[in-house]
């Protein structure tokens, strides 16, 4: 029997009983549990096989509820919260004393977001506690953007996926931390850098593990298909590097004419980066199930969400050798 359901009351009952429920958001599906239930939070790490050094994002229903999670809010953080929430932005701020250490990997900061999805906002409003919800995929796998993706990953591990349709934005939230009250981007994501800078001015980006110990979980290799993946601006030349291989192409706006291609997915025939972002992970899920030898992905324009998508594809294609 399918674990996908639209029954919010059932989700409330499970979450109130230390169980996990996968929830829809506008970015990706999350694997949610009560932040104050040690049992539920342990289950999140165990189910995802996520290392404990990788902290979780707390989801709340409103800016008011957010104020109860954090202890200090710089002026620019409050401005960002009021401008972009509900929305695809996560703020990392000094935590309140009552936030358990297991949520924050022992750090004195906590990541918080108000997601922009009507089903999950209703759920959060009805629950007496916030939800910790990392992406609902096994550690290092592709994030889920449809209820079916979660079901495929976790049908034997969790009791319910709350169905909210396909995720509109399709990549993870943009994470913003603060140093000396100034915003710093820890993770590029579904809210474009340009939109943030239009509100608070220029912001620095520190999204590499090597240079930012304040952003745990920013791994070089992440978000990966099982199939070897290559990111390139020159698809036709890259095809020549894989003779006699079964090749899948992830193209931005137009197909590549080559008889050496076994499968091809176009992200947006109208060159729309928002549309491309919403389809990116579903395309990777599809290509990853075709038994290909290699996925060759076309580099996107380095602007707006293109920059965030290139970041994900770079981490998907990272090899340490
Ligand atoms: P996910 O929920 O899978 O999208 O990943 C959450 C990410 O949020 C983690 O991998 C961290 O990079 C980031 N994060 C969560 N909490 C903190 C924190 N307290 N400080 C810095 N980064 C955080
Ligand atoms: Mg994740």
Describe the protein.
There is one protein chain. The protein folds into 2 domains: 202 residues, DHBP synthase (Alpha-Beta Complex), CATH 3.90.870; 89 residues, Threonylcarbamoyl-AMP synthase, C-terminal domain (Rossmann fold). The protein is built from 11 helices and 15 strands. The N and C termini lie far apart (43 Å). It is of the alpha/beta class and 321 residues long. A hairpin with a 6-residue loop joins strand 2 and strand 3. The strands form 3 sheets. It has a 9-stranded mixed β-sheet with strand order 2-3-7-4-6-5-9-10-11, with helices on both faces. Strands 12-15-13-14 form a 4-stranded parallel β-sheet. A two-stranded parallel ribbon has the order 1-8.
Task: Set out the fold topology.
Elements: E1 4-5, H1 8-15, E2 21-23, E3 30-34, H2 38-48, E4 57-59, H3 63-67, H4 75-84, E5 89-94, H5 101-104, E6 109-113, H6 118-126, E7 131-132, H7 147-154, E8 161-162, E9 174-179, E10 182-187, H8 193-200, E11 204-205, E12 228-232, H9 235-239, E13 247-251, E14 261-266, H10 273-288, E15 294-298, H11 305-316
Parallel strand pairs: 1-8, 4-6, 5-9, 10-11, 12-15, 13-14, 13-15
Antiparallel strand pairs: 2-3, 3-7, 4-7, 5-6, 9-10
The protein binds adenosine monophosphate (AMP) and magnesium ion.
